[in-house]
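Chapter review. Work through the record for Nickel pincer cofactor biosynthesis protein LarB before attempting the end-of-chapter questions.
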Amino acid sequence: MNSEIRKTLEAVKNGELSVDDALLAIKKEPFEDIGYAKVDLHRGIRQGAAEVIYGAGKTPEQMVGIIGAMLEHEVKTILITRLSEEKAEKIQKTYPQMDYRKDAKIGTIGQFPAADGLGKIVVATAGTSDIPVAEEAALTAEAHGNEVVRLYDVGVAGLHRLLAHMDEIMSASVIIAIAGMEGALASVIGGLADCPVIAVPTSIGYGASFGGVSALLSMLNSCASGVSVVNIDNGFGAGYLASMINHITEGKKS
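C-alpha coordinates for Nickel pincer cofactor biosynthesis protein LarB:
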Protein backbone atom coordinates (compact mmCIF):
# COMPACT_ATOMS: atom_id res chain seq x y z
CA MET A 1 0.00 0.00 0.00
CA ASN A 2 1.47 3.34 -0.97
CA SER A 3 2.23 6.11 1.48
CA GLU A 4 -0.53 8.53 0.44
CA ILE A 5 -3.38 6.06 0.99
CA ARG A 6 -1.76 4.84 4.21
CA LYS A 7 -1.61 8.40 5.57
CA THR A 8 -5.26 8.94 4.67
CA LEU A 9 -6.35 5.74 6.38
CA GLU A 10 -4.24 6.48 9.44
CA ALA A 11 -5.86 9.92 9.64
CA VAL A 12 -9.29 8.25 9.67
CA LYS A 13 -8.12 5.80 12.33
CA ASN A 14 -6.84 8.65 14.52
CA GLY A 15 -10.02 10.66 14.12
CA GLU A 16 -8.28 13.41 12.16
CA LEU A 17 -10.30 12.81 8.98
CA SER A 18 -13.88 11.68 8.46
CA VAL A 19 -14.72 8.61 6.42
CA ASP A 20 -16.56 10.76 3.88
CA ASP A 21 -13.61 13.13 3.45
CA ALA A 22 -11.24 10.20 3.07
CA LEU A 23 -13.49 8.64 0.43
CA LEU A 24 -13.63 11.95 -1.42
CA ALA A 25 -9.84 12.21 -1.41
CA ILE A 26 -9.48 8.75 -2.91
CA LYS A 27 -12.29 9.16 -5.46
CA LYS A 28 -11.04 12.43 -6.99
CA GLU A 29 -10.69 12.45 -10.75
CA PRO A 30 -7.77 10.21 -11.74
CA PHE A 31 -6.55 12.68 -14.37
CA GLU A 32 -7.30 16.09 -15.80
CA ASP A 33 -7.48 16.53 -19.57
CA ILE A 34 -6.13 19.96 -20.48
CA GLY A 35 -6.07 19.30 -24.22
CA TYR A 36 -2.38 18.79 -24.91
CA ALA A 37 -1.81 16.71 -21.77
CA LYS A 38 -3.69 14.38 -19.46
CA VAL A 39 -2.28 15.19 -16.05
CA ASP A 40 -2.12 12.00 -13.96
CA LEU A 41 -3.55 13.02 -10.59
CA HIS A 42 -3.66 9.48 -9.19
CA ARG A 43 0.04 8.78 -9.70
CA GLY A 44 0.66 9.49 -6.04
CA ILE A 45 -2.09 7.09 -4.98
CA ARG A 46 -0.87 4.29 -7.24
CA GLN A 47 2.87 4.72 -6.81
CA GLY A 48 3.35 6.96 -3.81
CA ALA A 49 4.90 9.80 -5.85
CA ALA A 50 3.34 12.48 -8.01
CA GLU A 51 3.82 12.66 -11.77
CA VAL A 52 7.10 14.23 -12.87
CA ILE A 53 7.12 16.70 -15.77
CA TYR A 54 9.63 15.91 -18.52
CA GLY A 55 10.62 19.34 -19.78
CA ALA A 56 12.38 18.45 -23.03
CA GLY A 57 10.04 18.83 -25.99
CA LYS A 58 7.39 20.74 -24.06
CA THR A 59 6.81 24.46 -24.49
CA PRO A 60 6.90 26.77 -21.47
CA GLU A 61 3.18 27.44 -21.99
CA GLN A 62 2.38 23.73 -21.87
CA MET A 63 4.38 23.28 -18.68
CA VAL A 64 2.68 26.28 -17.09
CA GLY A 65 -0.67 24.62 -17.81
CA ILE A 66 0.43 21.28 -16.35
CA ILE A 67 1.87 22.97 -13.26
CA GLY A 68 -1.39 24.86 -12.78
CA ALA A 69 -3.42 21.64 -12.89
CA MET A 70 -1.11 19.98 -10.38
CA LEU A 71 -1.20 22.95 -8.00
CA GLU A 72 -4.98 23.12 -8.24
CA HIS A 73 -5.10 19.51 -7.04
CA GLU A 74 -2.68 20.25 -4.19
CA VAL A 75 0.39 18.40 -5.43
CA LYS A 76 2.92 19.38 -2.77
CA THR A 77 6.18 18.89 -4.67
CA ILE A 78 6.40 19.39 -8.44
CA LEU A 79 9.53 18.20 -10.23
CA ILE A 80 10.44 19.23 -13.78
CA THR A 81 13.39 17.46 -15.42
CA ARG A 82 15.44 18.31 -18.50
CA LEU A 83 14.37 21.93 -18.25
CA SER A 84 16.43 24.48 -20.17
CA GLU A 85 17.35 27.80 -18.62
CA GLU A 86 15.42 29.69 -21.30
CA LYS A 87 12.21 27.75 -20.63
CA ALA A 88 12.71 28.05 -16.87
CA GLU A 89 12.86 31.83 -17.11
CA LYS A 90 9.56 31.90 -18.99
CA ILE A 91 7.87 29.59 -16.48
CA GLN A 92 9.10 31.74 -13.60
CA LYS A 93 7.18 34.70 -15.00
CA THR A 94 4.00 32.80 -14.04
CA TYR A 95 5.42 30.81 -11.12
CA PRO A 96 8.26 32.89 -9.62
CA GLN A 97 8.46 30.44 -6.71
CA MET A 98 9.98 27.80 -8.97
CA ASP A 99 13.53 26.92 -7.93
CA TYR A 100 15.73 26.24 -10.96
CA ARG A 101 18.98 24.28 -10.74
CA LYS A 102 20.94 25.04 -13.90
CA ASP A 103 23.52 22.23 -13.65
CA ALA A 104 20.89 19.56 -13.16
CA LYS A 105 18.37 21.21 -15.53
CA ILE A 106 15.71 20.67 -12.87
CA GLY A 107 12.95 22.95 -11.69
CA THR A 108 11.01 22.40 -8.48
CA ILE A 109 7.92 23.97 -6.99
CA GLY A 110 7.00 23.35 -3.37
CA GLN A 111 8.94 22.11 -0.40
CA PHE A 112 10.91 18.88 -0.48
CA PRO A 113 9.39 16.34 1.91
CA ALA A 114 11.22 15.30 5.05
CA ALA A 115 13.51 12.34 4.49
CA ASP A 116 11.60 9.18 5.47
CA GLY A 117 13.55 6.49 3.67
CA LEU A 118 15.13 3.48 5.34
CA GLY A 119 18.63 4.94 5.08
CA LYS A 120 20.90 7.17 3.03
CA ILE A 121 21.33 7.23 -0.74
CA VAL A 122 24.92 7.84 -1.83
CA VAL A 123 25.42 9.51 -5.20
CA ALA A 124 29.00 9.03 -6.42
CA THR A 125 30.62 10.31 -9.61
CA ALA A 126 33.82 9.30 -11.31
CA GLY A 127 34.63 12.86 -12.32
CA THR A 128 33.54 16.47 -11.99
CA SER A 129 32.16 16.34 -15.54
CA ASP A 130 29.56 13.81 -14.36
CA ILE A 131 28.08 16.18 -11.77
CA PRO A 132 25.14 17.45 -13.91
CA VAL A 133 23.78 13.89 -14.22
CA ALA A 134 24.55 13.27 -10.54
CA GLU A 135 22.64 16.37 -9.48
CA GLU A 136 19.63 15.23 -11.50
CA ALA A 137 19.76 11.94 -9.60
CA ALA A 138 20.37 13.56 -6.21
CA LEU A 139 17.62 16.18 -6.52
CA THR A 140 15.17 13.55 -7.77
CA ALA A 141 15.91 11.41 -4.72
CA GLU A 142 15.61 14.38 -2.35
CA ALA A 143 12.32 15.46 -3.93
CA HIS A 144 10.96 12.00 -3.13
CA GLY A 145 11.89 12.06 0.55
CA ASN A 146 15.42 10.71 0.81
CA GLU A 147 18.60 11.79 2.56
CA VAL A 148 21.36 12.03 -0.05
CA VAL A 149 25.13 11.94 0.43
CA ARG A 150 27.17 13.31 -2.48
CA LEU A 151 30.62 11.87 -3.26
CA TYR A 152 31.92 13.66 -6.33
CA ASP A 153 35.14 13.09 -8.31
CA VAL A 154 36.04 9.72 -6.76
CA GLY A 155 36.79 7.79 -9.95
CA VAL A 156 39.24 4.93 -10.47
CA ALA A 157 41.93 7.23 -11.90
CA GLY A 158 42.62 8.02 -8.25
CA LEU A 159 41.15 5.09 -6.31
CA HIS A 160 42.37 6.42 -2.96
CA ARG A 161 39.75 9.20 -3.25
CA LEU A 162 36.96 6.62 -3.17
CA LEU A 163 38.54 4.50 -0.43
CA ALA A 164 38.68 7.57 1.80
CA HIS A 165 34.86 7.42 1.94
CA MET A 166 34.37 3.79 2.99
CA ASP A 167 32.18 4.79 5.95
CA GLU A 168 29.66 6.45 3.65
CA ILE A 169 29.78 3.56 1.18
CA MET A 170 29.32 0.82 3.77
CA SER A 171 26.49 2.63 5.57
CA ALA A 172 24.45 3.44 2.45
CA SER A 173 21.04 1.96 1.74
CA VAL A 174 21.46 2.43 -2.02
CA ILE A 175 24.39 3.75 -4.08
CA ILE A 176 24.15 5.49 -7.45
CA ALA A 177 27.46 5.20 -9.32
CA ILE A 178 27.80 7.66 -12.19
CA ALA A 179 30.64 7.49 -14.70
CA GLY A 180 31.56 8.14 -18.31
CA MET A 181 34.77 7.05 -20.09
CA GLU A 182 35.09 3.28 -19.40
CA GLY A 183 32.49 3.29 -16.59
CA ALA A 184 34.63 1.31 -14.13
CA LEU A 185 33.37 3.07 -10.99
CA ALA A 186 30.19 0.99 -10.79
CA SER A 187 32.12 -2.30 -10.69
CA VAL A 188 34.52 -1.03 -8.04
CA ILE A 189 31.71 0.23 -5.80
CA GLY A 190 29.72 -2.94 -6.48
CA GLY A 191 32.65 -4.96 -5.15
CA LEU A 192 32.83 -2.90 -1.95
CA ALA A 193 29.23 -2.22 -0.95
CA ASP A 194 26.65 -4.53 0.62
CA CYS A 195 23.67 -2.64 -0.83
CA PRO A 196 22.11 -2.30 -4.31
CA VAL A 197 24.19 -0.25 -6.75
CA ILE A 198 22.53 1.63 -9.60
CA ALA A 199 24.98 2.41 -12.39
CA VAL A 200 24.50 5.44 -14.63
CA PRO A 201 26.68 5.68 -17.73
CA THR A 202 27.27 9.23 -18.92
CA SER A 203 28.08 10.60 -22.36
CA ILE A 204 31.38 12.02 -21.07
CA GLY A 205 34.46 10.77 -22.90
CA TYR A 206 36.55 10.85 -26.05
CA GLY A 207 35.55 9.47 -29.45
CA ALA A 208 35.70 5.75 -28.71
CA SER A 209 33.35 6.20 -25.75
CA PHE A 210 30.63 6.58 -28.40
CA GLY A 211 28.60 9.08 -26.38
CA GLY A 212 28.34 6.80 -23.35
CA VAL A 213 27.86 3.45 -25.10
CA SER A 214 31.27 2.25 -23.93
CA ALA A 215 30.43 2.99 -20.28
CA LEU A 216 26.97 1.46 -20.73
CA LEU A 217 28.40 -1.83 -22.04
CA SER A 218 31.05 -1.93 -19.31
CA MET A 219 28.40 -1.46 -16.63
CA LEU A 220 26.12 -4.08 -18.18
CA ASN A 221 29.03 -6.52 -18.16
CA SER A 222 30.07 -5.76 -14.58
CA CYS A 223 31.43 -8.78 -12.71
CA ALA A 224 30.24 -7.29 -9.41
CA SER A 225 26.98 -8.70 -8.12
CA GLY A 226 24.13 -6.38 -7.21
CA VAL A 227 24.75 -3.78 -9.94
CA SER A 228 21.84 -2.67 -12.12
CA VAL A 229 22.11 -0.19 -14.98
CA VAL A 230 19.90 2.61 -16.29
CA ASN A 231 20.18 4.43 -19.60
CA ILE A 232 22.91 6.88 -20.61
CA ASP A 233 22.70 10.18 -18.67
CA ASN A 234 19.48 9.02 -16.96
CA GLY A 235 20.07 10.56 -13.57
CA PHE A 236 16.33 10.92 -13.00
CA GLY A 237 15.69 7.21 -13.54
CA ALA A 238 18.46 6.30 -11.12
CA GLY A 239 17.27 8.73 -8.46
CA TYR A 240 13.68 7.53 -8.72
CA LEU A 241 14.64 3.85 -8.57
CA ALA A 242 16.94 4.46 -5.61
CA SER A 243 14.06 6.15 -3.81
CA MET A 244 11.78 3.18 -4.43
CA ILE A 245 14.40 0.80 -3.03
CA ASN A 246 15.00 3.06 -0.04
CA HIS A 247 11.27 3.07 0.78
CA ILE A 248 10.63 -0.66 0.57
CA THR A 249 9.44 -1.89 3.94
CA GLU A 250 9.70 -5.43 5.25
CA GLY A 251 6.67 -7.53 4.45
CA LYS A 252 5.31 -5.07 1.85
CA LYS A 253 2.79 -6.70 -0.45
CA SER A 254 2.53 -5.95 -4.15
